[in-house]
Write a structure and sequence with these properties.
The chain is of the alpha+beta class. It has helices at 3-15, 27-34, 64-70, 95-107, 133-139, 193-208; strands at 18-21, 42-44, 47-50, 54-61, 78-84, 110-112, 121-128, 147-152, 157-162, 167-175, 178-185, 211-214. The protein has six helices and twelve strands. The protein has a six-stranded antiparallel β-sheet with strand order 2-3-4-5-1-6, sandwiched between helices. A six-stranded antiparallel β-sheet has the order 8-9-10-11-7-12, with helices on one face.
Length: 222
């Protein structure tokens, strides 16, 4: 890199959201993983385009000099950064960070800057059929024991909570064939809770015919 381009790259990596990896993944693996977030993602310039307005640029070789200039932790071999291509185009401005966070979880990396708080939203099943509340309770008994109806709103949302688990389930009925199941938890939960929520979402998706995604918008797979 030249002096100017090195400076600009360091500033871009410092700002984030930046994905740090101990290796440079092959392009096929990277694309396959990104497509868990957006099935239509594809090549774009020196990286990938996700949705209508997000670019994932990389891999960028992290020399010790570049890492130090960017204020990144030492010991990482490659980096990617995500950004909105057109900042004036609107859309979901949280998506670059969700993309980087999900890739870090799946590829053995780290997000920079790191998020200090665990997410409250854990998983979501969309486009599913409506099943009886009692069946939901039985279906999730292993991963979210003790669920019971707490609230039913006029807008068609049923809230199930548990005294035995921090996970709560929101069931929103748009119509009988379009129901959303959201799984969330208060902050401060244990490390096993996100995995339990993902298993519960997969069980719901299998029973209702919906699509299960995690808190970063990535498809949940077996």
């Amino acid at each position: 890199m030249g002096m100017i381009s090195d400076f600009l790259m360091a500033r871009r990596l410092r700002k984030g959201p930046t994905l740090l990896l101990p290796y440079a993944p092959d392009s096929a693996t990277l694309l396959k993983t990104v497509r868990l977030h957006d099935p239509q993602a594809g090549p774009y310039g020196r990286g990938l385009k996700i949705g209508e307005n997000v670019e994932l640029r990389g891999p960028i070789e992290l020399t010790p000099e570049l890492a130090a200039r960017a204020g990144l932790p030492a010991g990482w071999a490659a980096a990617f950064f995500a950004r909105n291509i057109d900042s004036d185009a609107g859309g979901d401005f949280a998506r670059p960070r969700l993309l980087v966070r999900g890739l870090a979880e799946r590829l053995g990396g780290r997000e920079h800057p790191e998020c200090q708080e665990p997410p409250e939203d854990l998983a979501e099943v969309t486009g599913g059929r409506l099943v009886a509340v009692g069946e939901v309770v039985g279906l999730l008994a292993d991963d979210v024991p003790g669920l019971a109806v707490t609230t039913v709103t006029d807008a068609g949302t049923t809230l199930l909570t548990s005294a035995e688990s921090p996970i709560e389930v929101f069931v929103t009925e748009w119509d009988a064939d379009d129901v959303t199941y959201e799984l969330s938890a208060d902050v401060g939960y244990g490390t096993d809770v996100p995995a339990a929520a993902r298993r519960a979402a997969l069980a719901l998706a299998a029973r209702t015919g919906g699509v299960a995604r995690d808190h970063n918008g990535f498809l949940i797979t077996e």
